[in-house]
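Rhodopsin domain-containing protein
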Amino acid sequence: MPVVQQANDRNGILVMTVLFTIIIIAVVVLRFYARHITRAGYGADDWTALAALLFTLGLNGIFLGATIEGAITGHSPVVDGWPVTIPLEITAQKYKYAFQTTEKWVFGLIKISILLLWKRLFGSSKRFRVLCWVMIGITIAWTLAFFFTTVFQCGTRWSMNWAPIGIFLTQCIESLDVLTVFAATDIISDLIIICMPVPLIWRLHLPTKKKVALNSVFLVGFFTIGAGIARTYMYLVTSYDKESNPDFIADFTLCILWSEIEANVAMMVCCLPTLSPVVGKFASSLRTTPLGRWFPLTPTEKHSHEMSEDLELSVASKLRRKQPSRLSSDKQMLWEEGQGTITTAGYSNTNELPRNNRTILARTDISTTFEARDSDSL
């Protein structure tokens, strides 16, 4: 069986966690800014992403605390192929319990936020909306089931959750099997959620290049799946092959490290599909500066601008159905002629649509009457 390579660079891990924290805060702020500049309104997906951010920040705080106290990158003395209990092992067990209970909410909320975003963008399909709600229900059940299983893994004997690893494994539920099932179902659900909009995109009447560009935004979520696979591998190797990997604290470091990476990458992936308006606005602003005139738009920037329009199309269509155009009464033009054909025209003063400062909506109503008219009255 393989012996996993240990992670010993404490300073590097601290820097990584701080950078992750800054990045995830930035992407969520930019997500809300993108909603503001497109005037699309804040939705349930945005508020769920904000809740996921708060739990992820809590997760990062737990990870930082464990690293500062030495539980992350620490080591257990090994005698006769089994780790010797030291105070640092108890500390590691406490942080593991806090981390594993918090991560269930992080992963669950991120999945729900992405599903709500899919429903918002592609909600014109009733079948797709139903699929989104089914997946949301499954995700909620999945989150609650693993959260309460982790909280009560030792029943109400709370101190057993941070007992020495030998006592914990014999007195509590089969936590290794629970973690394995959790990691495997996490990967499977991520794969389903990420691939859900792909068939809809390929059915759009768009050039193939644009379809590929749109899919690339969603499929960036495979980075999250990659981190999940790495975490699952660490679970399997370190948990079921103790003879080759007897250092409990070092194994704890690897498993928690990959969970931390997966959670923060998932938080970024959750917000990336919403940031194209910000990229387009930044590119447009750059073109207006003297320096910007020397830099042509790259294909990525062009695709970002095009994707912004495409992703908001279904939202705009939904709003148009809910907000019928209102023709202003003072901008109407009327003429009467012949048998009384009356035509009215005007502009829409609806201001709820995305990008309304760049969109003109018009409606013309034509009605025909057959009333006889006195020629003297004309």
